[in-house]
């Protein structure tokens, strides 16, 4: 799931554009370590050229790790913080954790790569992750999560904070939707099919 943050950061920082492609051989070697796909089999997995939609379709670890390294630790770290990680969400509950995020100046190249797939130098809470992914759904704006019911008349008064450009959020939203559509048609015939939703 953290690959959503990695791709959004790479696009919004203009490290890459929507047409960016990557040759995925099933693994990425960083600091003499291999970051592999879940289905990688040495000597049997073919190299495949992927675009961003296919990154999400395959949940490509090498591609996401490559994007993190391409951004570099400082830029990637700044976006991770902008998405709200390493900070409490502000929900109305005591004892909320802010998670763990090592400073970017402590990251080795391998740390940068593995953080790109949601491991490495980061540990997050489910609420932080939900809030971050909602930024994509909310056209690039962060909305503080709440347990309180908000009347419809006051929805427009909710305070938001711009995290990424509208264009970036919309592009990532469309990539995610397209990847799910492909997977439901070609790989998993029932996944993602929720009654009442297209």
Structural description of this entry:
The chain has a two-stranded antiparallel sheet with strand order 1-4. The chain has a two-stranded antiparallel sheet with strand order 2-3. A two-stranded antiparallel ribbon has the order 5-6. The mean pLDDT is 92. Strand 2 (27-30) and strand 3 (33-36) form a beta hairpin. The radius of gyration is 18 Å and the shape is globular. The chain has seven helices and eight strands. The longest helix has 21 residues, at 166-186. It is of the alpha+beta class. The chain is 39% helix and 12% strand.
Q: What are the main properties of this structure?
A:
single chain, alpha+beta, 7 helices, 12% strand, globular
Please state roughly what percent of the residues sit in beta strands, choosing from under 5%, 5-15%, 15-25%, 25-35%, 35-45% or over 45%: 5-15%
> How many extended strands?
8
User: How does the overall form come out from the CA principal axes?
Assistant: globular
Low-confidence stretches: none
Note the main sheet.
Answer: 2 strands, antiparallel
Q: Give me the number of helical elements.
A: 7
Terminal residue distance: 22 Å
**Overall pLDDT level:** 92
Order of helices and strands: HEEEEHHHEHEHEEH
In short:
The protein is α+β, with helices and mostly antiparallel strands and 198 residues long.
How would you summarize the topology of this molecule?
Blueprint: H1 3-12, E1 22-24, E2 27-30, E3 33-36, E4 48-50, H2 52-58, H3 61-71, H4 73-82, E5 100-101, H5 109-115, E6 122-123, H6 126-137, E7 141-143, E8 160-162, H7 166-186
Antiparallel strand pairs: 1-4, 2-3, 5-6, 7-8
């Amino acid at each position: 799931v953290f690959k959503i943050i990695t791709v959004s950061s790479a696009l919004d920082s203009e490290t890459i554009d929507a047409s960016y492609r990557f040759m995925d051989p099933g693994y990425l070697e960083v600091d003499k370590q291999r970051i592999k796909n879940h289905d990688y089999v040495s000597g049997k997995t073919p190299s495949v050229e992927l675009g961003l939609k296919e990154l999400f379709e395959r949940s490509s670890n090498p591609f996401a790790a490559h994007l993190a390294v391409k951004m570099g630790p400082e830029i990637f770290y700044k976006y991770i913080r902008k998405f709200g990680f390493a900070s409490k969400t502000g929900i109305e509950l005591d004892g909320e954790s802010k998670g763990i995020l090592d400073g970017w100046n402590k990251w080795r190249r391998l740390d940068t790569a593995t953080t790109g797939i949601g491991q490495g130098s980061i540990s997050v809470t489910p609420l932080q992750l939900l809030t971050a992914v909602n930024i994509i759904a909310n056209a690039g704006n962060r909305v503080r999560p709440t347990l309180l019911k908000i009347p419809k008349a006051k929805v427009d008064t909710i305070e938001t904070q711009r995290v990424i450009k509208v264009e970036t959020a919309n592009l990532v939203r469309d990539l995610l939707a397209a990847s799910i559509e492909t997977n439901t048609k070609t790989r998993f015939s029932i996944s993602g099919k929720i009654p009442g939703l297209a």
